[in-house]
Amino acid sequence: MRRITWAEYTALDVAQRIPFLAKDAAAEHEPFHVLYAQQFTRQMLDELCALADHIRRLHKTPEGAAFLQTLLPNRAALNLFAQPSTRTFMSFQAAEMRLGMQITDIRDMATSSQAKGESLQNSVRTFSSYVDLMVMRHPDRGAAELAAYEMNMAERRIPVINGGSGQDQHPTQALLDIYTLQKALDEIDGKKIAMVGDLLRGRTVRSLSYLMKNYKGVELFYVAPDRLRIGDDIKAFLKRQHIRYSELDNLEEIVPVVDAIYMTRIQWEWDKAAGATVGGEGQYDPRFVFRREYLDRMKKKSCLMHPLPKINEIDPELDYIEDPRIVYWRQERNGMWIRAALIARIFDVDKKIFSCRT
Question: For the whole model, what pTM was predicted?
Fold first, then answer.
């Protein structure tokens, strides 16, 4: 791999950075570091979904679960979560456990030498001495990229997976969203998908939007308050990819039209961090709440999704209704399986999994 400076790396657009994330030059599309949704091709997405299906089938039997435990017992994972998380953290932890990995975690950077002024780069190099994989969530945009860059320059190179970086990307959430869409709708090509809520700061909707480049005839509907509309960079990307999209401020009118509704919460914590006084509709906007009566207007073959945590943007009554279109709890569990598939692919044990018929 050619060595370049951090300034040279960050001057590249994402498409130009992707070859630097690969295992080697001969396999530039194979994941090593996983930082961006744009890394994934349609073929890779289909293969990861199939691999996730196989892992979950194996895990249903004692023999299959025991086999999975034999795959990576000599590998150690560090879950470095410098930002609050429950679902993503536990999902990665469970995925690593399913594959027999040893696991350690750092959830409070105040307990690390960064509290003494050590740079993130030096911390990452130190951690890489003890583990074989680093999953990283950080409030700063570009932190996971910097960690991956540092690993490429280090004597001991380990893969870095972006578990959520600033307001920018959350690629593995996008993977589980694709997995959920595929299982709920049978196929994604030609579908109409609405993304609702805090689209400006929601890294999940950004990453999912990037993955739409891999599907034919998809149409996107972005439904958000004016101040929280999807970013111009995403719209520019969609235009380059010839993906149709619309921007609306009315959730109710598109409910019967779309095949999937992806709800998100208002991320008021970013306002609070910026010093704004937050209350009332700063945390909640009634215009962008999925109400109980909307379920009756959805297509019979459709799905209601949410990346979680949810606050009040979905009527709580829906948590207790048995309807196959309500998939957000299944969506959460899907994350464990697709992340296990991704880790298996990174460590080249995917073929062993496919060959097991236990």
Answer: 0.91
